[in-house]
Amino acid sequence: MEDIYKIILEETLAGYWDWDIKTDIMFLSPALKRMLGYEVDELIGGHAVLQSLILPDDLPVAKACFYDHVNSHGVKLYNIDIRFSQKNGEILCINCTGRVIEWDGNEPARMIGCHIDVTEKKKAEGDLAISEETFRNAFEFSPIGMVLVSIKGKFLKVNKSLCDMLGYTAKELLCKTFQEITHPDDLEADLTLLQKTLSGEISTYQMEKRYFKKDGGVLWILLNVSLIYDRSSRPHYFISQIKDITEPKNAEAALRETQRRWIFASEGSGGGIWDWDLANNTIFHSEQCIRMIGFEPHEFDNIPGVWTQKVHPDDKVKYLADIQEYLDGNTEIYTNQHRVLCRDGSYKWILDRGKVIEYAPDGTPARIIGTHTDITDQKQKEEQLRYTLDMVSGQNNRLLNFAYIVSHNLRTHASNFKMIMDVVKDPDTDAQEKEQLSMHLQSVSDQLNDTINNLNEVVSIQTNIDIQTYEINLFNYVTRAIDLLQGDISRWNVEVINEVPVDCKLVYNPAYMESIIFNLLSNALKYRCLHGKPKVMITYFTDTDGRQGFGVADNGIGIDLHKNGHDMFGMYKTFNGNRDAKGMGLFITKNQVESFGGRIEVASEIGKGTTFTVHLN
């Protein structure tokens, strides 16, 4: 019988476990291991193996539930939803149930239980809660009127915008039907569309109509109505969106009366006019509008779509989307900026504006008029301004990089000179040691000379937009950095391994490359392993896109990325309490890498080390 229960648990509930508490031997069923992403021969051991997969935030709650079960001698159920981490890092929400089935006095001896994956259920519950809250907020705080109406027309729920619009309180409106406040001349059309919706002929409808306000005034509205069905697919209630269009309606007549004068004034100021009759699918472009792009009136067909065909491909999607947004009633006025192909093959920037001046009986736009204004000169000036700002920003970044290189590299050379001279002046230093130091002094001097040459090059390019690059040998630059830091390497007995190929060539700015490698290597030494043999490894790679790069990995004290990851490359950000840390090195390094279109990544674990990976351009 026990085997039958196990089969049922495996096949229907996804997995079970059996824990001998006294010996801390825990059996996990194959289905349970598969649920967590492991093979049958994995996850062998005691309760700690399974417990290690529980998310840290959920572990205290799980333990509390277990102790409640044990302390109540099984009266309180062990039943809780806990998040587990799968082998691949995915998070599962699992319903964990269990019961102590054997006791040694008051002490639990054996406990069994099962795990059910409820991730999708939890997600669905969360999505539903979000959806309901979203609808509630959208209804209550909508800037337009919203109302739920019964099948017979009684107001069931109204929002504040509608109350403000009509001058009623919510309590007063809930005692009325929409028929009572609708203008008699508009009621029949509304009821006809309502009936068509109930009969299934249409799913939604939109119309313009008039409401009576509490003070007796008349309000023109744009009404959008949708029918909501219950779970049995029967009509449940209507949801209506109500937009006050009194001002546009009152302005329509005045707009039509002044249309001729408006066209004359617009064209007199250099703009063009267009008039789109949606009802008859015709469009008119004024002579000024056509000549603006180099055509004569007889060369341009006034039919819908001709202008659209000339819109630049990169601008066409937004151009059409902005028109549709306005036609759908989502924007108060149509406006768009796009490029249009001229007769001579060039493109001009056009500011396009339009507004509906007539509506069809069903409330949809019937006629739109608008203007075309040539803004090419304005766009060119904006582009020049952006170019200038980018140039200034780039020069500022290079100045910051230069200051960093001076601060870090020259200071290191100076320190090496001082250290050597201090040893040379030491009376205990014998002649042989002084001779060796003199040779090292020559090496440091040569490296300082190279650094100064590179800095001179950086200075010379501060007024240029493009940073000069040359073919360099990455292996040599890594070797130079190792030599430069040899004092610290020897002092702390660090094993530095340069796995970059001897003939590794790449194109980069020499000063930047020297600075990047030096900073990453000096960081690895500074935060070296303190309880074992410190190691640093520099490697080279080519990624799947063919881009070159290198990595600097150490076995040092590591960085808590969960705590400090978002500040990792920030200016003046330090992480390990080192009094010598300035918080500038990684910030500048990232800036230098990205100035060539590259990127830098970090992986680290406390007590195990840190790896910086540089993807070059």
What are the main properties of this structure?
5-stranded antiparallel beta sheet, 22 strands, flat, 617 residues, alpha+beta, 42% helix, 21 helices, single chain
Provide the spatial order of strands within the biggest beta sheet.
Answer: 2-1-5-4-3
| Rounded radius of gyration (Å) | 38 Å
The level of helicity is: 40-55%
Helix segment tally: 21
What distance separates the N and C termini? 66 Å
> Based on DSSP secondary structure assignment, what is the total number of beta strands?
22
Please describe the biggest sheet, giving its number of strands, its sense, and whether it closes into a barrel: 5 strands, antiparallel
- Strand % is 25-35%
Low-confidence stretches: 460-465
* Overall geometric form: flat
Mean pLDDT: 83
Class from helix and strand fractions:
alpha+beta
Pfam family, one: HATPase_c
Catalytic activity: ATP + protein L-histidine = ADP + protein N-phospho-L-histidine
EC number: 2.7.13.3
Protein name: histidine kinase
Give a structural overview:
It is a single chain. This protein is an alpha+beta fold. It contains 21 helices and 22 strands. The chain has a five-stranded antiparallel beta sheet with strand order 2-1-5-4-3, with helices on both faces. Strands 7-6-10-9-8 form a five-stranded antiparallel beta sheet, with helices on both faces. The chain has a five-stranded antiparallel beta sheet with strand order 12-11-15-14-13, sandwiched between helices. A hairpin with a 5-residue loop joins β9 (218-229) and β10 (235-244). It is flat and about 115 Å long. Residues 460-465 have low confidence and may be disordered.
